């Protein structure tokens, strides 16, 4: 199963959601691969791994080498420290170069097919794959959307990030692919603007109940908290920084709903 986390805007908590989904699943006993398709390489920092262009090298192997000449998938994967069932496919600066090559090199399959071939061994072995995409609509993001079984869109309910949510929704509609979840992030729960924007999302065709904001049932997306900004500097998840705290409880509620909607047993 491939779960892609996407938005065309940066700073909306894509990486935070992807890492917490992946580590939550790993803690529950699932085998998980976390793919960093963002040139910033933030996942490596979060999990205390040095940056590397493993994703670019894997995609190029699929793009340019015969199947019998390609290295095995395990040579591109690295164990996440402190998470025994989680491995990482790191991305960094070369991801941008590969994104360009995927659309300019003659004779290549569609980007989604390239990524599906690259991850094929993991898919066939029933590994859960979580893909964190970059903040731009390039061919690597398009590949991650096309290959996904489920798409998760985090977004701050204001300004430019609202457009990012709706742009991804439109692109998926063109592919006839559903959205599994829209997760409002960094919400100010007392803000009328935020409440109004979330209401607009829930009233939009194709979104509705997939917007994770339902206060009567205790689901409030991910409200704005200092801790979300601090996690990157700690290079650790909320489960490690503030176990049992309010922010950890909020993240747990979001991930549990997401796992249920993805039908992960």
Structure description:
This protein is of the alpha/beta class and 265 residues long. It has one domain: P-loop containing nucleotide triphosphate hydrolases (Rossmann fold), CATH 3.40.50.300. It is built from twelve helices and eight strands. The protein has helices at residues 14-27, 42-46, 54-64, 94-104, 111-118, 120-124, 139-147, 159-175, 192-203, 226-234, 238-241, 246-261; strands at 2-5, 32-37, 78-79, 86-89, 128-133, 150-155, 181-187, 222-223. The chain has an eight-stranded mixed β-sheet with strand order 3-4-2-5-1-6-7-8, with helices on both faces. Helix 1 crosses helix 12, helix 3 runs parallel beside helix 4 (94-104) and helix 5 crosses helix 7. The longest helix is centred in the middle third of the chain and has 17 residues, at 159-175. The radius of gyration is 18 Å and the shape is globular. 45% of the residues are buried.
Labels describing this entry:
265 residues, 12 helices, 8-stranded mixed sheet
Architecture (CATH level 2) name:
3-Layer(aba) Sandwich
SSE ordering: EHEHHEEHHHEHEHEHEHHH
The percentage helix is: 40-55%
Ranges where pLDDT stays below 50 over 5 or more residues in a row are none
Q: How are the SSEs ordered, and which strands pair?
A:
Elements (H helix, E strand, L loop, with lengths): L1 E4 L8 H14 L4 E6 L4 H5 L7 H11 L13 E2 L6 E4 L4 H11 L6 H8 L1 H5 L3 E6 L5 H9 L2 E6 L3 H17 L5 E7 L4 H12 L18 E2 L2 H9 L3 H4 L4 H16 L4
Parallel strand pairs: 1-5, 1-6, 2-4, 2-5, 6-7, 7-8
Antiparallel strand pairs: 3-4
Helix pairs in contact: 1-12, 3-4, 3-5, 5-7
